[in-house]
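As a next step, we paired sequence with structure tokens, yielding the entry below.
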Amino acid sequence: MAVKLLSMKVNNTPTRTLRPAADIRALDIIDQTALPHDYRSLRLSTLDDAAHAIRSMQVRGAPLIGVTAAYGVALALADDSRDGALSAAIATLGATRPTAVNLHWALARMAAHLSPLTPGERADAAWLEAGVIAEEDVVQCRCIGEHGLALLRPLAEKYGRIEIMTHCNAGWLATVDYGTALAPIYAVFDSGLSIHVWVSETRPRNQGLLTAWELKQHGVPYTLITDNAAGLLLARGAVNAVIVGADRIAANGDVANKVGTYLKALAAHAAGVPFYVAAPRSSIDFACASGEQIPIEERCGDEVRVVHGLDASGNSGAIRQLPADQNVANPAFDITVAGLVTAIITERGSCPASVTGLRELYPEANDA
């Protein structure tokens, strides 16, 4: 029986991560850098607003980055829709984050759609196409949830309760609605099956706190853990599945995701626990032969040196835990080789993490 996933809610109000403003050509987003302590929205009105939101991770998550970039093009063309402005907007947005292929997929789609049009036609067409991309993301994520439910249901029948582990945030905060890796979790929960989520904190950006926040909003039972506790829990048999999202999947099934994913895949493999990757078509890069070709973003060292949070009085602030001149490395992603992935879950179904598996799911890629 098909399960209808419930739209995500904040304080019992159906909510999306971004929405076109009602009265003007602008985009309202959830400022994810303020979560989980403060829930607030920001308005993006210009190309620079959109580029900053992506770069600073006010919006984050590969699918949401792509949708925001599409709207960023539309915002840019509202002022100047000539060829030079279109090219400049795509170049500006394309330079914001190197690893998430959804960004470049969305920009390429916008360019292909808008380039044949006259400048006078482009502003309205760009806004409409960005909206289409956003709605497609919602549908794809809902389908990922339904296909993921089919894979996870046998675990509920076998164990009575699904104990599933996540890494980073691949929920509705990383998409327009529903999420990728969390969509199957929500589908399991909404179907009435018993599930508990082990949420990895995912330092240094602590996106696991976003996962914990949205699971709490939806009522899904969860426990937050330090990243380094994952191996112990898997070895002890406390986890019977791991599911993560992806910022890019290579043609051979290698997966780029938030740094620390590879370690969980290794631990899951050693424990004999299935390791699932959930992502839409826009995260699959058929032009990239393997994970060795995926660029790994190196982010600012202060993300490691400085910790943000609330003080004893509830005021937000930052604490420096390392000297400003402390040498640190801060790679944002790592590569999980295809051999460690049990299955890739997409809007079309699930498949082995392999060239054959992906191309059978997307046969049109053979002609690309």
Summary: The longest strand covers residues 195-200. The first helix runs from residue 47 to 55. The chain has a mean pLDDT of 95.
